[in-house]
Write a structure and sequence with these properties.
single chain, mainly beta, 11 strands, globular
């Protein structure tokens, strides 16, 4: 497989990373890993204070050359991940455990979308008000 520019949408940011999509896996070379928001440390794969230990013998997570499979990391974290058919757009949803408090409180997670004129509107700006969310898809 060939490394290519990939756009990653995760719980923190939208990131551009050079990676190698391979079916349901997304391999990022050790040198490009910091662009994904993750670092390899003695405690494991870390993003800020969050560290995920690397179990021994996990060749599907970390290769001998230091490349990291971000999709396998998401699976270890029980984090939903989807990608487009070309493997150039990847969405890493927050793990269900981090969303449990929102479900218990019946609060929708915050998001920001543009209106027809391109002005961004955040759901958080409407907290305390009644909001109707309507969506539509052509498929």
């Amino acid at each position: 497989m060939v490394s290519t520019p990939v756009t990653i949408f995760d719980e923190e940011a939208v990131r551009e990373v050079i990676a190698t999509p391979d079916g349901e896996d997304l391999w990022v070379d050790a040198a490009a890993l910091p662009a994904s928001g993750w670092e390899r440390k003695p405690a494991g794969l870390c993003r800020d204070a969050l560290c995920v230990p690397i179990p021994p013998g996990q060749a599907d997570l970390v290769r001998a050359d230091g490349a990291v499979n971000l999709a396998a990391l998401a699976r270890v974290r029980a984090q939903p991940v989807v990608h487009d058919d070309t493997g150039t757009l990847w969405l890493f949803d927050p793990p269900a455990s981090t969303q449990e408090h929102l479900r218990a409180a019946l609060l929708a997670p915050d998001f920001t979308l543009p209106d027809l004129e391109g002005r961004p509107h955040a759901l958080a700006a409407e907290r305390g008000k009644k909001v109707l969310l309507a969506s539509w898809a052509s498929w």
